[in-house]
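Hi all, posting the design record for the shared folder.

TITLE: backbone redesign
STEP: 1 of 1
STRUCTURE INPUT:
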């Protein structure tokens, strides 16, 4: 079976045992890898209702046929588990040397079970697995932790680590790798911490099985150079993802003041142009020739790596417009192991709730120094930090007083940095994202604003959301590979079947991949329904603040305009109809059969009736 090692490494931290397991060609072809492998393993092995921070949850590290192969932006690793933040399926991807090293060690996936009796790290080298004490780095930030492991094993190893936030099980703790790489927004770092697992270190020496090694090397390396040339010609990486900030401010889509506002006159002070001018270094993921990790000197003198999401959420949404201070907040999130998007949203919600008299506190918008203090308390779960560590959904449930309406999350995951109070299609993308509100699944906002009527709730928007989910949340998550060459440089999707076929020896076309994407999205929804049997369509709604006329902008290009709930429901109906889901948003029996999910549908029927 070329293209896959055919092996999964299963590790039990409780009794310090491990074993190599195999999977067959049918499994490989049905789920491909990455998100597909992780989802199917979790579906099969987790009982519904388990504690996400208990011993029964499993952390999955999953790769795929493109992972680590020399081709454009193939350095991605997927991490997944039942989410402690949302209670549903949770995952994320991050650029990491783990991608290549775990495959060279001979595995396409790693399953971590149980809880170590003391702080531990895993060392995997080919067929050798060691459970080693992590006391020396327990409690340390991720920068110091990474340096400790690099000194011990060399910088070429695959490395996944957590910071104090993961150790203390902050519900939106993430997993770190390399310089500024991070992933697993729905609390994957907390799952790792709940297992007393500080790090996973991997080194491999085996050949990755490839059907046409010379062919993929020639095409892949040539295309890496072409993507690099495209980046040089367009100049995209001069600002990287932060180039979108000025555009969001211009089109009234910027998160400002807990998304109460959609633009700000001082936004230019933290935009991509200013960031590029302050650049002191640039980092990227393995196999990347369009590096977007722009690093600046923060307020305390640290090197802080920035992107749009953290500038949007730790800057504009908190009304902090000093770039070095935003850099400090992002550095803290990275070092402490906090997801920067959720951390910014939590602080913004906290300031908003204080301002509206729903809770007492001394934090105000614009207060960078207090924000730093709160992030440190959150990572340690000390004082008010224990409250902030729970995320906006649980905070609002405890505060009450109508605060749930302006807790900016979907399914418990905080909304990333696009304010959609008058962008119906992007609101739908957030509402139907299968891990909670995340822009990575279907970044439809540019299509919507530049190519359609913004106020439209037409079927074409639902079609576009699904098209992008099939590509971004499907193809790029299960191959896996970074989407940026396609998104930012126009690198055609037709290249990816070429890579896949040279690696696997198959003869797939793009159309073959879309059914796999649809299968994965339907099983992700089944996962949620199994956990929440009384499922209804309101779980696919964005926050009510986006429908509230009193929350409309008072001036600017969308003054007085917000989403309309009745029309949003019509848009959601279009989405469900195209997907073959019922009016609750649950896949039907026919859809399950068409996608080869009959067995999974029978399991769901124990919890919720299918149409």
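Okay, here is what came back for every position:
SEQUENCE:
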């Amino acid at each position: 079976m070329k293209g896959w090692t055919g092996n999964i490494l299963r590790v039990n931290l409780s009794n310090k045992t491990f074993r190599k397991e195999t999977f067959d060609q049918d499994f490989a072809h049905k789920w491909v890898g990455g998100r597909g492998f992780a989802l199917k393993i979790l579906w099969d092995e987790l009982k519904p209702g388990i504690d996400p921070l208990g011993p029964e949850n499993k952390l999955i590290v999953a790769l795929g046929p493109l992972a680590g192969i020399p081709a454009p932006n193939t350095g991605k690793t997927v991490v997944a588990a039942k989410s402690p933040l949302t209670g549903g399926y949770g995952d994320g991807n991050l650029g990491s040397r783990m991608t290549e090293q775990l495959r060279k060690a001979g595995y396409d996936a790693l399953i971590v079970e149980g809880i170590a009796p003391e702080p531990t790290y895993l060392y995997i080298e080919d067929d050798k697995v060691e459970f080693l004490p992590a006391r020396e780095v327990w409690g340390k930030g991720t920068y110091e932790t990474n340096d400790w492991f690099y000194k011990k094993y060399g910088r070429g190893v695959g490395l996944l680590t957590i910071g104090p936030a993961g150790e203390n099980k902050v519900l939106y703790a993430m997993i770190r790798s390399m310089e500024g790489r991070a992933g697993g927004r729905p609390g994957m770092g907390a799952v790792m911490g709940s297992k007393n697992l500080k790090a996973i270190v991997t080194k491999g020496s085996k050949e990755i099985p490839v059907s046409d090694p010379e062919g993929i090397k020639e095409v892949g390396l040539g295309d890496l150079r072409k993507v690099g040339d495209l980046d040089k010609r367009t100049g995209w990486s001069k600002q990287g993802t932060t180039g979108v900030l000025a555009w969001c401010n211009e089109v009234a889509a910027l998160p400002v003041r807990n998304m109460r506002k959609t633009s700000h006159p001082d936004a230019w002070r933290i935009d991509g142009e200013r960031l590029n001018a302050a650049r002191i270094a640039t980092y990227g993921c393995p196999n990347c020739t369009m590096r977007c990790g722009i690093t600046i000197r923060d307020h305390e003198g640290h090197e802080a790596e920035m992107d749009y999401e953290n500038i949007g959420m730790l800057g504009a949404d908190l009304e902090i417009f000093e770039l070095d201070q935003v850099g400090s907040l992002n550095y803290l999130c990275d070092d402490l192991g906090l997801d920067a998007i959720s951390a910014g949203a939590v602080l913004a919600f906290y300031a908003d709730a204080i301002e509206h008299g729903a809770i007492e506190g001394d934090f105000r918008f614009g207060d960078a120094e207090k924000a730093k203090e709160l992030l440190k308390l959150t990572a340690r779960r000390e004082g008010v930090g224990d409250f902030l560590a729970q995320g906006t959904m649980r905070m609002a449930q405890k505060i009450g007083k109508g605060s749930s309406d302006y807790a900016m999350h979907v399914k418990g995951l905080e909304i990333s940095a696009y304010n959609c109070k008058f962008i119906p299609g992007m609101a739908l993308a957030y509402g139907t994202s299968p891990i909670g509100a995340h822009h990575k699944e279907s970044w439809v906002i540019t299509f919507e604003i530049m190519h359609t009527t913004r106020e439209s709730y037409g079927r074409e928007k639902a079609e576009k959301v699904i098209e992008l989910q099939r590509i971004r949340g499907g193809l790029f998550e299960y191959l896996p590979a970074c989407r940026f060459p396609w998104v930012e440089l126009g690198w055609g999707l037709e290249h990816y079947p070429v890579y896949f076929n040279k690696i696997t020896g198959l003869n797939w076309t793009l159309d073959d991949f879309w059914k796999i994407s649809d299968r994965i999205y339907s099983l992700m929804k089944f996962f949620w329904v199994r956990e929440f049997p009384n499922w209804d369509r309101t779980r696919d709604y964005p926050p009510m603040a986006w429908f509230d006329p009193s929350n409309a902008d008072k001036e600017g290009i969308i003054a007085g305009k917000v989403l309309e709930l009745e029309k949003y429901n019509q848009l959601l109906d279009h989405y469900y109809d195209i997907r073959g889901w019922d009016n609750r948003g649950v896949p039907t029996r026919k859809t399950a059969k068409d996608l080869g999910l009959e067995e999974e549908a029978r399991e769901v029927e124990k919890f919720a009736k299918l149409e």
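COMMENT: The longest helix spans residues 213-234.
Let me know if anyone wants the other runs.
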